[in-house]
């Protein structure tokens, strides 16, 4: 919500017509959660950081992201077959 007394500066310019794209997640959330780092069936490491689920392929040194959460992820579970991960 914008404050009622907000005024746009005269030299503010226009908003960019692009969005940011996550390239790499550094670190993971662990200060108030447990069991938030697991191995997937293919050997990838799966973990959470803030509101992002990360799948890190150690062999290829790449990361894939699930970033549709509106809040921080504080729970993660993995299926016994290690091929399905749930976050919340």
Which terms would index this structure?
4-stranded antiparallel β-sheet; elongated; mainly beta; 0% helix; single chain; 88 residues; two-stranded antiparallel ribbon
Brief rundown of the structure:
The protein has 88 residues and is mainly β. It contains no helices and six strands.
What is the 3D form?
Answer: elongated
Quaternary structure of the protein: single chain
Q: What class do helices, strands and sheet pairing give?
A: mainly beta
Task: From the alpha carbons, calculate the radius of gyration and give it in angstroms.
Answer: 18 Å
How many strand elements? 6
By DSSP (H or I, 4+ residues per run), the number of helices equals 0
- Helical fraction equals under 10%
Low-confidence stretches: none
Distance between the termini: 26 Å
Q: Report the biggest beta sheet as strand number plus sense, adding barrel if it closes.
A: 4 strands, antiparallel
Averaged pLDDT: 91
Order of helices and strands: EEEEEE
Strands of the largest sheet, in order across it?
1-2-3-4
